[in-house]
Amino acid sequence: MCAATPAIAADPDPVQAEVSPDEITVTASRRSEASKDVPVAVSVIGGEKLDVLNSSGLDIRFLSGRTPSLLVGSSFGRTFPRFYIRGLGNTDFDPTSAQPVSVVYDDVALENPMLKSFPVFDLASVQVLRGPQGTLFGRNTPAGVIKLDSQKPGDVLSGHASLSWATFNTVNAEAAIGGPLGGGFGLRVSGILQRRDDWVTNTATTTLGSRKLEGYRDVAGRVLLSYESGDFDALLNVHARDLDGSPRVFRAGIFRKGSNDFVPGFDIKKVALDGLTSQSLNSFGTNLKLNYTFDGVGTLHSITAYEKGKVESTGDVDGASCYAFIPGCTLGNINVGGFPVNTGGTTKPKEFSQELRFETAQMGAFRGQVGAYFFHQKLTYDELAYDGAGAVTQNVLHDNKNENFGLFASGEYAANADLTLRAGVRYSNDRKDDFVGGLASFPGRPLPIRTKAKGDNVSWDIGATYRIDPSVNLYARFATGYLGPSISDRVNFGDFPTTAPKQTTISGEGGIKTELLANVLRFDLSGYYFRTKDFQATAVGGVNNSAQLLTIDKVVGYGLEAELNARPMPSLVLTAGLSYNFTEIRDPSQSIAVCGGGCTVTNPLNAAGRAILNGNDLPQAPRLIANWTVRYAVPLGDGELFAFTDWAYRSKVNYFLYTAAEFRGKSLLEGGLRGGYKFDSGLEVAAFARNITNQIRAVSAIDFNNLTGMVNEPRIIGGEVKFRF
Length: 725
Fold this sequence. Notes:
By secondary structure, this protein is mainly β. Helices cover 2% and strands 57% of the residues.
């Protein structure tokens, strides 16, 4: 007997997959549907566009600004991304902080922000769902969902490999291969290596840390094993990551007082840190999906998942305060406020989740889903502080437990050939238990301290899609979202553990989705309004460099979002996205302390000298976000010569809850360019550049007393070889 030879077929054409409207499918309702049939504002990044954006050693922050209303930032570098959709997010950098934007990787909702940083590679698509999605997507989704779906093993042998080299010895290497094994089994193995040399020089004459910074070596891999037999199928996912690098560089004194300009002499390649600097991350995860179809009745889905990580990060949190151009600057391991500048620690999140979901078959005009969800997290971490000799002066130990239980149901009813109605409901119950022990300092609190919080909620959504003709759909949707109660367990700088009640959002949106001109043009337009009650926010900094958990009475937002996807001729592909997002804090009674010194406060102050937040924008919430790409190709020989350019823009942003001249971030425009030759055989050779204009902007700051900020990445130029089969 001869063994059958697996069929070999090239991966789908990345250009066609990106721009053909009738091939754009989403899983916003936990099943595959055409994007225009779903009453949700959703964007999809896939194909060549995803490959280009995810090049040159970038991490998941490359998604920032690449779809309407989406911003991504980090003060930890590659280990702690923070997501903002329609202005809703959480600027807090504490390991216990909950984000209103959920990251769902291969149908598993990741809670801890450090687990959300898993590298992006070998993906079928990235979907960005805007607005509350709490009915069907696990937990904590009042702002939206970032949904990442890996390529599956498939029915034929396929894969790809790529290798690029660029500025600062940046290497991006990725490979994947998958296909059938026989007997109903399939396998796909993929991996990525990203590395960069340290390219920032530490000029401090006395330092406990490294002389070179900002480099990294990041390795991740994934194995998918599938099985299918009759009405049953299963998919086992095992993945891991190992990162070694340096923490985000905090740059003291980079703002010219009274403005958001950089000071004269600012050099992105130099910093003066006298403290310890180190960062590493190891993570492992696995999940098992089981599906059984009952003929004519429906399908039972089970998703069992486990994720764990270990993250060590130690940094010079005051940015050293010792650039040569800072008046009165002196070296030493004590900042202006008299606090040790070296802090760090090790964080260990462990998360288990189980979801059972039954999806009915089409029963006349109706189909529905019903299910249950359980989540358990154990999070331990320590907070270390060091004196000028590197000796530990503080060791605060945190032990947190977080549990969520949910029941949900949704249904869809085709009222007639043109009108489809949808509705869903979810009950959520959260319980949190926080324990703090060890030795605290400056001045600290008597330890141990235990804090508990609990809350529950019923969230819902209703929506409708109306087909005007086969090419044009109108939709409307109303939904509520829920963020469980929070605990801030900080005990230093005069802080003490505090809690915030559950946060709730109600949202309404509507729009038009089109596929026009024989599928060469797709245009979507939506408008929305939301109101969030008991908004959870954190004020960080002030005279004591403390962090305070706040409950803001109300936040409102509204805006417009548009997307265009066109192929006016076979050789030309165009995409564009634009959003206008307005946010406003509405709480006349809420105020916070301003910076400890140095900044120029533009916010109205109350009699106590505190900033009045009422009327302010949310932090990291730009009014405008825009992106566009152009691809042009001409046939040449046994392939095509192509050029691809991509651009992302965001307008000015506030870094903090209050306003100051130095802490109002300038607008940012970053562009990429890629050109090369693609052979019909699947081989591709290209040159590329990221941030081609080398526009350097501050993207965030530290609210203390020395005008410390963080900046975007400089221009990267390189070349790449890729093969797809």
